[in-house]
Amino acid sequence: MEPRREKIRFEQGDALHLRADLGSFDVVLAANILCRVSEPKKLLAKLMSHVRPGGLLAITTPSTWNHIFTPRENWLGGFESEHAPVCTLDGLTEALSPSFGMLTRIDMPLLIREHARKFELIIAEGTAWRRTADASLVP
Question: What pTM, to 2 d.p., does this model score?
């Protein structure tokens, strides 16, 4: 089956301020941005609002939470709660439930070449989430 190029378009913009009339999609991808925005829950709400019922939300993140990008109180993981460590997957699950169910989780190696003699190996966590057919989302 030949891809339908007229159904694909790319835009550049601020992930926390997506335009309201952007539309809804069968698949939405957030690649390695979650721990680099000031309000990750706001980002998730925006992305969720653009996924059609039954559609997929794919998220990759190295979970390198840093106060330079995200105030500590907005982190989805990478800290200790009163009872146990909280990982980013815990925060994602809380933020996306009950409107989305996780389909899969994988480790995704990423090698960045800084220069000829220096490389950085990152293992991002990749997750795929399906929006429930009866979920009505209001960002």
Answer: 0.86
